[in-house]
Amino acid sequence: xxxxxxxxxxxxxxxxxxxxxxxxxxxxxxxxxxxxxxxxxxxxxxxxxxxxxxxxxxxxxxxxxxxxxxxxxxxxxxxxxxxxxxxxxxxxxxxxxxxxxxxxxxxxxxxxxxxxxxxxxxxxxxxxxxxxxxxxxxxxxxxxxxxxxxxxxxxxxxxxxxxxxxxxxxxxxxxxxxxxxxxxxxxxxxxxxxxxxxxxxxxxxxxxxxxxxxxxxxxxxxxxxxxxxxxxxxxxxxxxxxxxxxxxxxxxxxxxxxxxxxxxxxxxxxxxxxxxxxxxxxxxxxxxxxxxxxxxxxxxxxxxxxxxxxxxxxxxxxxxxxxxxxxxxxxxxxxxxxxxxxxxxxxxxxxxxxxxxxxxxxxxxxxxxxxxxxxxxxxxxxxxxxxxxxxxxxxxxxxxxxxxxxxxxxxxxxxxxxxxxxxxxxxxxxxxxxxxxxxxxxxxxxxxxxxxxxxxxxxxxxxxxxxxxxx
Length: 471
Description:
The chain is an alpha/beta fold. 34% of the residues lie in helices and 20% in strands. It has helices at 21-24, 92-105, 110-126, 140-153, 178-192, 219-232, 253-261, 300-309, 317-322, 330-335, 354-366, 378-385, 387-392, 419-427, 434-448, and strands at 3-12, 25-35, 41-46, 59-69, 71-77, 129-135, 157-160, 162-163, 205-211, 238-243, 290-294, 312-315, 340-342, 410-413, 454-459, 462-463. Strands 5, 6, 7, 8, 9, 10, 11, 12 and 13 form a nine-stranded parallel sheet that branches. The chain has a seven-stranded mixed sheet with strand order 3-2-1-4-14-15-16. The longest helix has 17 residues, at 110-126. The radius of gyration is 22 Å and the shape is globular.
């Protein structure tokens, strides 16, 4: 049935770019969000202007809590559910070998994989992550329980098994032959892509092709994955991987990729140009359903190519701080026209909550040197954690804000769950200018929010239970 939710509303309306987000910010201090029986939004606006046709609808009065669009996490690792805050005595490559490959190998145990899937979904719900691009496990049984648990809980998810055909000894349990990598990936697509509804346009579950990163595969694997993606691209299958994360001179990820493949840029390896001299060796993996995580050290030509193809970036400042990977240059990246969305990168990142990612993004980018420093507008922050994520998933027409007709993915944020946040909301100084006052409130909300304030989570108008028993 149609239901009315009351609260203070914030969302970024329409289809703006991040630089247009401030002008598109909608703030309704005494708002109403009306959800139809199909789970779609039929009204968002002032409570006092609520149409008479909804006068008899059941009312959920969340006041003085806030109603925000559900958070979208465009880069998070399922097999690292228990690997947060792992100490490896170094940066990315050492951390992978010392901590992450052994940790991910534990999911070879089906019972452990089941436990991790339940915990992963619990943590997502607690953090208000209604949609996510999930870097998957190498083990098919682990992916099966992840998809199954996500479907049971009613969560949106895109995921794919992590593909590795080469790697160090610590990754031995995660490696497959090239033939098995293709077979298992295709089997996952056939089993789980749109498995919940049978229709990509309405499904909550989708599959991605996920080479771990270029150093985990060969040119032969990249060529085969390009052929595979070309055969399933029109079915709405995704691609997800890492790009330009760590650039420690000589031994970091970026230099290692360039040396191993003898290419001009790291992006070339995903763009079908993975032969020496960046010669074409296969089909491109780039496109509107491709999300590349990190992109800290991109060259201008790489950003231009991503913008041209509609490829999105998952920006993960928390993990970049944790692993010493550097700072993605905000102004230059945004100016290129690439869509930039937020990613936790748990467990390289050690936060599940997207608003914590947005807070670190604000702190990092205001400290960029000289004229590169920028104070992110709170509407830009909200956009990056919601609508930009929906755009990165090529589902902007379905969710991401409160435009009428969209599926109702939203959060009830109660500051009382975090006393320090409640104090800032109730007693913080606000501008006499109404617009600025709204922006100050949104900023305090995003910066001060913690998981206990995520009071309720809804996907497609249905409340999602935050405990392992489901609903």
